[in-house]
Amino acid sequence: MDNASYAKGLEGVIAAESRICKIDGENAKLYYRGYSVEDLAEHSNFEEVTYLLIEEKLPSSDELARFSSNMRSGRDLAPPILQMIQDFPKTAHPMELLQSSIAYLSGYVKHRIQHSSNCDCKQTLHQVAQICSVIAALYRSRQGEDYIAPRTDLSHGTNFLYMLRGSDPEQYEGEIMDKCLVLHAEHGFNVSTFTARVVASTLSTCYCSISAAMGALFGSLHGGANERVMEMVDAIGKKENVKNWINNALDRKQKIPGMGHRVYKAKDPRATIIENYLLELSEKKNDFRAYEILKDIEKVFRDRMDEKGKPLYPNVDFYSGAVYRLLGIPSILFTPIFAASRTAGWLAHILEQRKDNRLYRPKSLYIGPEPLEYPSP
Ligand SMILES: CC(C)(COP(=O)(O)OP(=O)(O)OC[C@H]1O[C@@H](n2cnc3c(N)ncnc32)[C@H](O)[C@@H]1OP(=O)(O)O)[C@@H](O)C(=O)NCCC(=O)NCCS
Question: Residue whose CA is closest, atom 26 of ligand 1?
Fold first, then answer.
């Protein structure tokens, strides 16, 4: 084995070609299939972005109408899935349920892959459509409340809030929820996406690939930083406490959640957009507590990083938890929502992997003992 090619954690290794996502970490730019996230957040919606990711182009209005109708009609959950959600241990994390439910949903689809590179992912859009329904059903079941059937007249984000609450959200709430789904839909070769592609490369089903990706996303180094951000906001309590709290944390070499990124060396473009949603929601609800604390954390943190010359800035998770909280969503659902959105990106990568497949099979650098003689009895 060539030691020179060893890269722990595959850092810096280019493992495949991809046409899906371009990230310019130095200049804080992110594009899905060539379109900037700023334009997509401003002008598009989650259904159109899902089409863009998996069909490789923006749809015409007819194509979008057909696609949306297909996705919307796939939102409802069959009684056995609802039963499974009810029977799942209430103490389990929703990500464990979500991962299991994908495998369970798979049993309701007639797969025609396994032996070829063809794939039925596009026909089984339920994965994208039904995950928000599973999350809403799970939350309501834990609250002792009945399942709310989905509506087909609502956007993906608005329908999710409707299924969660059992009542119509305000229009601006639905729009912000939908745009948050747009902003989390794709982000290159991160761990969960790579996991999905590795499993897809064996010609396993797209459900198995997505279920594996969900397992990867559950880990605290990947999903979940926005939950930690809100724990920090609660621990700080009020904006007057920010300076001392952050300085003490940094003096103790603690990492500040929601700050820093492996790829971005400037403020994550999604953080900039979500910060604006947070301001809008704070104004509408006349509740600026989290917004003010987060803005002050960013300022104190950035001052300290400037002193040290470290390019650490807010990432996508820094403001998103506060947005979800103002939308009435409990923090235990933050990572599941990330999964619901990212499933669109995972599907695009599974399709791309299958188009020009090569089974992933890296090597390890063996550092164990040389052949030993088995002790004689
Ligand atoms: C995202 C993250 C894992 C990227 O890590 P990375 O590129 O491997 O960077 P490292 O962990 O090696 O950190 C490099 C330096 O920056 C510091 N640093 C990185 N993130 C930091 C943070 N959030 N707060 C304070 N310091 C941080 C490290 O302490 C280290 O300092 P040193 O060189 O003096 O030892 C990391 O920034 C982090 O843990 N952030 C907080 C969790 C988070 O928000 N995750 C969601 C990512 S979308």
Answer: 255
Give the distance (Å) from ligand 1 centre to CA of residue 233.
19
CB 48 within 8 A of CB 15: no
Q: How far, CA to CA in Å, does 287 sit from each of 258, 262, 273, 349?
A: 21, 32, 19, 39
Catalytic residue among 126, 261, 296, 349: 261
Q: How far is the C-alpha of 104 from the C-alpha of 211, rounded, in Å? A: 10
Distance 283 CA to ligand 1 centre (A): 32
Q: Is the dihedral of CA 265, 266, 269, 271 positive or negative?
A: positive
Burial of 4 (0-12, 13-18, 19+ CB in 10 A): exposed
* Beta carbons of 281 and 326 less than 8 angstroms apart: yes
| Residue 111 annotated in active site | no
- Expressed in angstroms, the distance from the first to the final Cα of the chain is 35
CA dist 265 and 84 (Å) reads: 43
Q: Tokens 């944390």 label which residue?
A: 249
Walk along the chain (377 residues) and give the pLDDT tens digit of each residue.
455 689 998 988 999 999 999 999 999 999 999 999 999 999 999 999 999 999 999 999 999 999 999 999 989 998 999 999 999 998 899 999 999 998 888 777 665 555 555 566 666 666 678 999 999 999 999 999 999 999 999 999 999 999 999 999 999 999 999 999 999 999 999 999 999 999 999 998 888 999 999 999 998 788 888 999 999 999 999 999 999 999 999 999 999 999 999 889 999 999 999 999 999 999 999 999 999 999 999 999 999 999 999 999 999 999 999 999 999 999 999 999 999 999 999 999 999 999 999 999 999 999 999 999 999 98
DSSP alpha helix (H) spans, 143-268 = 156-165, 171-183, 191-200, 206-218, 225-236, 242-251
Distance CA 224, CA 217 (A): 8
Whether residue 261 lies in the annotated active site: yes
